[in-house]
Amino acid sequence: MEFTLIDGKTKFQFPVKPEELTISRSKGYETINMLEYGEFDFAQGEKVKEITFSSFFPKEYDASYCMYEPLPDPRVAMNMLNTFLVSKKPLRFIITNTGVNVPVYLISHNTTFRGGESGDIYFDITLRTWRDSKVEKVGGATSASKSGSRTDLKTSSKTYTVKSGDSLSKIAKLELGSSSKWNEIYKLNAKTIGSDPNRIKPGQKLVMP
């Protein structure tokens, strides 16, 4: 099992296999606060994964744990990780004999020097999987959208066209099941109806609760 980072034509294989690797996954969601109804959560799909592991760059080759030889100089290897860290291009992270073959950014790199182990350099890194975004034009404007659709939170309002002989109580009975709910209709349409809820006119379009 080999752990490799690839940057274009540059291939960097970690000389010592990590003892463990952690892949963090989580689900994104958006909370909407709707008046009178409280909060609602809307799922937005899986968040970007984070991959973390620790290992070291040995100064001397040891067949019991080193993956290959000749070994890279520990300081040169550490500088290579620093180069990956500041790069603005995604890398390719591959673990052979597994399903891990993903584009990533190296977002964190911590180095440790231990007393008594002169020349060895220990490190832990965090990789964050990268997803391309699609750019599309909407109504003449350019917008970026991530792959996958997002739930449309807008709902079309139901309307009622006033007929001759209608009253708010009658409309409430027909549309809402109770004539006592006429006041809910009036609150939503006060600007259209005016100050007197009894004076509705045929042809008016009223927004329904």
Provide a descriptive summary of the structure in words:
The chain has 209 residues and is α+β, with helices and mostly antiparallel strands. It folds into 2 domains: 3-131, Elongation Factor Tu (Ef-tu), domain 3 (Beta Barrel); 159-207, Roll (Membrane-bound Lytic Murein Transglycosylase D, Chain A), CATH 3.10.350.10. The chain has 4 helices and 13 strands. The chain has a 7-stranded antiparallel beta sheet. Strands 4-5 form a two-stranded antiparallel ribbon. Strands 10-11 form a two-stranded antiparallel ribbon. A hairpin with a 2-residue loop joins strand 1 (3-7) and strand 2. Helix 2 packs across helix 3. The longest helix has 13 residues, at 74-86. It starts with a strand and ends with a strand. 11% of the residues are buried.
Low-pLDDT residue intervals, each spanning 5 or more residues: 143-155
User: Could you state the order of secondary-structure elements as H and E?
Assistant: EEEEEEHEEEEEEHHHE
Distance from N terminus to C terminus (CA atoms, Å) equals 62 Å
Strand arrangement in the largest pleated sheet: 2-1-7-8-9-6-3
Sheet bearing the most strands, described?
A: 7 strands, antiparallel
- Decide which structural class fits the backbone: alpha+beta
Q: Based on CA inertia axes, which overall geometry fits?
A: rod-shaped
Work out the helix count: 4
Global Rg? 31 Å
Q: Please bin the fraction of helical residues.
A: 10-25%
| CATH architecture heading of the largest domain | Beta Barrel
* Overall structural domain count: 2
Residue-averaged pLDDT: 81
InterPro entries: Bact_Kbp, LysM, LysM_dom_sf
Organism: Paenibacillus xylanivorans
Protein name: Terminase
